[in-house]
Amino acid sequence: MSSHQHFRDTVKLTSFQREGLLQRLDGASKVASSGAKNRKGVRFSYQRENVPMLVVHPGGGVGRFLVCTRNISEGGMSILHGGFLHVGAEAHLSVTDVDGHEQHLVGVVAQCRIVHGTLHEIGVQFRERIDVTRFVDDRHHDLELPEGAENAPVVDGDLLLLDMRSATRKTRAHQLRHCGLTVVEAASAGEAKDLLKTQPFDVVLIDCDSGIAVSDVKALRDGVFEGLMVTLTEKNELARILPSTCVRLETELSVPAIASRIAVYLSSRSSDGMEPILSELTNDPGMVSLVQGYIHDVKRSCEQITSAMAESDMQTIRGRCQAIRTTAGGYGFPMLTRAAGDALNALDATGAVEGAITELKRLISFGGRLAVRDGDNA
């Protein structure tokens, strides 16, 4: 496959669209990937576009396509292709190794599922196992899913991860997303403080052994964030002087174990114990009754979304999300507008309800926390 001029691009995504779709697929893999339990070997991120693939169809004939790759393991590769391929079709892929040299990999189509529009995710099983380190730099092994990840809990929540070390931060962020959490990364206490002032988070996870000062942890705890704060450290002397209101865990804990602890702490907090989302408009006495009526409508919409999720009813979910996004700002809930917009973007990016589970649960959670200030009366 030295010449690629006769290979047809069926994916037809911009780089931005491709990255967005791959990110959504990674976030939804725990729910949507039907082959995960049977896949052997650790998967590593291997995202390339315009990769030549020659397909020999079981019934005869040859197809030449340019595809996008998603991840790779010693036993196979996941790719995006703009059409259906029969299981058992022979696939020849031309991919580059870590040194930039072109390598020829041969396998068979083991799985094909639709993910968005006409786009399909194709699972290719290699004829022979490969040395995956030829294609994934050892320095990027942080993208590996952790041992026991298939048994990790699915945790619903928004987490801010503060870690000054890029490699470990990216490792944990990737693995925590695999557990269902929506993760935002911060490389410094200052960046974390700015994020906490502008975005709602259920959990803040801080690796104190990465160089974060105890004074910074105390400042975030005392003046910025009152929710669940989890600190990681192996240093006993440091653990003793951290704020007593922080949950302290050992750094050596695996990410699934950390996620399990977070799940327990979050589930122990009732929805009434979470900070309410207050309307910005109830300072006007004439708006209070209107806002209260709107809150009732949103809660009913969230119930409809929940029911529709069980049926994978995309039309109902989109309609309710669109209505909330359009109206929430007019009643003083810009945070709800953004949450509904995030859910719609996730639905559009993946073309499947399963690909937007995290965003939809976040929207439903927000809908249950809408309130007017104590003392505001109609």
Describe the structure.
This protein is α/β, with parallel strands linked by helices. It has 3 domains: 8-138, Thrombin, subunit H (Beta Barrel), CATH 2.40.10; 145-269, 3-Layer(aba) Sandwich (Rossmann fold); 275-371, Four Helix Bundle (Hemerythrin (Met), subunit A), CATH 1.20.120. Helices cover 36% and strands 24% of the residues. The chain has 10 helices and 14 strands. The chain has helices at residues 15-32, 166-178, 189-198, 214-223, 236-241, 255-267, 288-311, 314-327, 334-350, 357-368; strands at 8-9, 44-56, 62-72, 76-81, 90-96, 102-116, 119-126, 158-162, 182-186, 203-207, 228-232, 247-249, 277-278, 370-371. The strands form 3 sheets. It has a 6-stranded antiparallel barrel. It has a 5-stranded parallel beta sheet with strand order 9-8-10-11-12, sandwiched between helices. A hairpin with a 5-residue loop joins strand 5 and strand 6 (102-116). Helix 7 (288-311) runs antiparallel to helix 10 (357-368) and helix 8 (314-327) runs antiparallel to helix 9 (334-350). The longest helix has 24 residues, at 288-311. The protein is flat.
